[in-house]
Structure formats: structure tokens, C-alpha cells
Design goal:
single chain, alpha/beta, 13 strands, globular, binds nicotinamide-adenine-dinucleotide, binds 2'deoxy-thymidine-5'-diphospho-alpha-D-glucose
Length: 354
């Protein structure tokens, strides 16, 4: 089913979803091309996520450290590597950071996306596809019922989601105005291996293992719709190969959960596989804290378009996916210790002398 991409630019490939996507794609039998991973290596870019690839690539994987805000660098990379398709993950992704310091969200998410679209457009007919990875947060917040569809109006509530909404509009405009072959996916909360421990699930797992407080925003009853990261990678590849150009597809995990329920499930798994020395439950670590400003109450995704037209559906249930994920963070203490201590940035210092 592959569209025969030769040189795929993956932006943000050292981040959580991007690195999972690179592992996923290199293992697929229907992808024969080369991956060029362009990442600025911000705090969220972790070379450990792709350990081993740089030396074991057989020419199928190249890493280039570059900032998508640098238009000249993007033009050079597209020319040097003959880029014919893009999977665009690179972005500032954490809502709390966008509330404290929104500037980098405007540059990376909006200007960076513009630079890539503009560079792709200039490659003319040799360019095959620009796939933009976006979020369900562009749709705003739901009440107790209903689902986001591709027709739901955009109502972003945080600087993060507003910047992603702007980038989505640019992608749409480049298709409508210039005929750039694009596809766009808006997906719900991802979880799985290699997620930076500022996001809810890895933060709670690591804090619990380290006997630190587990901060629950507000009443803990905000709802997210959780998607296992490999299911997301599979959805992206399906859309890239079979999605209609110019169209948007929602991606969800059919797993709506209140935050407090997730934290309870994580603690139950940990208490079972890594019991505390005193044998007591870790629930005493739960600490209710001040709510996030503008905190969206509920997200839930209708992914029937993707399911019915392209045949994709999520394979992982939340219960199995969460157990796998918690176990991964428990078993990969080298990764978690290096990310918590900041040692993951040593490679960057060695390579780039910072
Ligand atoms: P992440 O924060 O883990 O990784 C982002 C990556 O982008 C990092 O490697 C970082 O170094 C790189 N990057 C940031 N700014 C850059 C720039 N200016 N130039 C080059 N590289 C840059 O993010 P993630 O969770 O993997 O999310 C990937 C994409 O998926 C984002 O576009 C995000 O909006 C979207 N998304 C994420 C989720 C989720 O639950 N994590 C859900 C829906 C959509
Ligand atoms: O919905 C897709 C989005 O999901 C992506 O676009 C974002 O990039 C991604 O970060 C994620 O955004 P959220 O804000 O939903 O994820 P986060 O892990 O930060 O928070 C999940 C929920 O948990 C949210 O309701 C806030 C709450 N929370 C989060 C943290 C970090 C807490 O209660 N305590 C915390 O310490």
C-alpha cells in the first residue's frame, strides 16, 4: 500500500511520537525509503530515544540537527537529501509551558510550519506529500457528551492549541491555494514509551517510583481520550498512503478517562509490580493542586471517518496499553534516570560542544 516515498523528512524525530514513528517505519516492510530526521534538540528532543540508529542505519536513517524556524537551513536540507515527503511532528507540545512562555510556540509551531510548507512548495512536482500532525485541542473543550468530528469548529483555548490551529490553517491554505499535496491528522492524547516526563502518565509513574507528590490539577475529573502511540503511528502511515489529499482525519483511542482514574490505575499497577517497602498503597502521594488556567474539561474523538474510509482502528485497549507503558518506564530505568537528571543532553554537548 506504500506510495513509494524515497526521502522522507521527519521533523521532531527525537521527540516522543516522532521517535516512535521512526522505529515503527524502519520496521515496516512496505517502506523502502530513507528517513531524514530534522530536530533542533530542544529540551524535549532526546537522542536516547533513537539510540543505536545512527550507527546501524545501512543508509536508511540520517540525523540533521536544525531548527525548522531557519528557512535557509530547510531549503538546504530539502535540496541536499532530495526530500519528496514530510511527516511534520516538530513542535512545542506542552500546554503548561505555553501558558508560562508562549513565544517559542509561536515560532516553532507557526513560523516553523510555514517554512516547511514554503520549502515543500518550491520543490514543485517532485514533491509527493506533506503530512501534518496536529491535535484535538484545536477544537476546544466538550461538555459531558458529544465527540469532536472533522467538522467541529476550531476553538483553541491555550497558546499551544492556538498555535497548532494556526499551523493547521496554513496547511489547508497551501493545499487550496498552491495545490500542495497535504494530509492532516488531529489526534487525542498519546501515551507509551519515550514520552518526556512532564506529561501526565510518565510524570505520575516516575514521581510515584521516587515517592514524590502526584499533582492533580483541579478536581481531577477532566477527561482525555487516550491513544497508544503505536496505534497513532499506524494511523499516520495509513493516512499518508491512503488518505485523500487536502483532507483531515481525526485519530482517537476510544478510551475516555478522567485524570484521577488514570492515576489510580497507574498506582495499582505499580503497587503490584513494584510494591513499596512498607507494603502500603502509593495513593497517599496524590496531591490536589491549583487548576491549569483555561483547563479544557473534556476531549473525545469521533474517528469514524478514518475507520470507515481507510480501515484504521486502534488495537491497544487502555488497560493493556497502560500496563505496557508503566512496565516500560519501570524496566527502562537507564532512560528514565538520564532524562530526569538531564544526562540525556550529554550527547548533544559532546556532538555540538554546548
Ligand atoms: P515532543 O515535545 O515530545 O517532541 C517535539 C520534538 O520536536 C522534540 O524532539 C523537539 O526537539 C522538536 N522541536 C521542537 N521545536 C523544534 C524546532 N523549532 N525545530 C526542530 N525541531 C523542533 O512532542 P510529541 O508529544 O512527540 O508531539 C509531536 C507532535 O504531535 C506535535 O506536533 C504535537 O503537537 C502533536 N501531538 C501530540 C500529542 C501528544 O499527546 N503528545 C497529541 C496530539 C498531537
Ligand atoms: O489532546 C492532545 C494533546 O494532549 C496534545 O496536543 C499535547 O501535545 C499533549 O501534551 C496533551 O495535552 P494535555 O494537556 O491533555 O496533556 P498533559 O499530559 O499535560 O495533561 C493531561 C491531563 O492531566 C490534563 O487534563 C492536565 C492533567 N494534569 C497534567 C499534569 C502534567 C494533571 O492533573 N497534573 C499534571 O501534573
Amino acid at each position: 500500500m506504500s506510495i513509494g516515498i524515497e526521502n522522507l523528512l521527519v521533523t521532531g524525530g527525537c521527540g516522543f511520537i516522532g521517535s516512535n514513528f521512526i522505529h515503527y517505519l524502519l520496521a515496516r516492510e512496505d517502506f523502502h525509503g530513507r528517513i531524514v530526521n530534522v530536530d533542533a534538540l530542544t529540551y524535549a528532543g532526546n537522542p536516547d530515544n533513537l539510540k543505536g540508529l545512527a550507527t546501524n542505519d545501512q543508509g536508511r536513517y540520517v540525523f540533521v540537527r536544525a531548527d525548522i524556524c531557519d528557512l535557509e537551513a530547510m531549503k538546504r536540507i530539502f535540496d541536499e537529501y532530495g526530500i519528496d515527503a514530510v511527516s511534520h511532528f516538530a513542535a512545542e507540545s506542552h500546554v503548561d509551558r505555553s501558558i508560562k512562555r508562549p513565544e517559542s510556540f509561536i515560532f516553532s509551531n507557526i513560523v516553523g510550519t510555514f517554512n516547511l510548507l514554503e520549502t515543500a512548495r518550491r520543490r514543485g512536482d517532485s514533491f509527493r506529500l506533506f503530512h501534518h500532525i496536529s491535535t484535538d485541542e484545536v477544537y476546544g473543550s466538550l461538555g459531558p457528551t458529544g465527540l469532536f468530528t472533522e467538522e467541529t469548529p476550531y476553538r483553541p483555548n491555550s497558546p499551544y492549541s492556538a498555535s497548532k490551529a494556526a499551523s493547521d490553517h496554513l496547511v489547508r491554505a497551501y493545499h487550496e491555494t498552491f495545490g500542495l499535496p497535504t494530509t492532516l491528522s488531529n489526534c487525542s492524547n498519546n501515551y507509551g514509551p519515550y514520552q518526556f516526563p512532564e506529561k501526565l502518565i510518565p510524570l505520575m509513574v516516575l514521581n510515584a517510583l521516587e515517592e514524590k507528590p502526584l499533582p492533580i490539577y483541579g478536581d481531577g475529573k477532566n477527561v482525555r481520550d487516550w491513544l497508544y502511540v503505536t496505534d497513532h503511528c499506524d494511523a499516520i502511515w495509513t493516512i499518508m498512503n491512503r488518505g485523500r489529499r487536502g483532507e483531515t482525519y481525526n485519530v482517537g483511542g476510544a478510551a475516555e478517562m478522567e485524570n484521577i482514574a488514570i492515576v489510580g490505575m497507574i498506582l495499582d499497577i505499580l503497587d503490584e509490580i513494584r510494591p513499596r517497602e512498607n507494603g502500603r498503597s502509593r495513593r497517599d502521594l496524590i496531591t490536589y493542586v491549583k487548576d491549569r488556567p483555561g483547563h479544557d474539561r473534556r476531549y473525545a474523538i469521533d474517528f469514524s471517518k478514518l475507520q470507515e474510509r481507510l480501515g484504521w482502528r486502534p488495537h491497544e485497549s487502555f488497560a493493556t496499553g497502560l500496563r505496557k507503558t508503566v512496565s516500560w518506564y519501570v524496566e527502562n530505568r537507564d532512560w528514565t534516570e538520564r532524562v530526569r537528571s538531564g544526562a540525556y543532553q550529554e550527547w548533544i554537548d559532546e556532538q555540538y560542544g554546548e
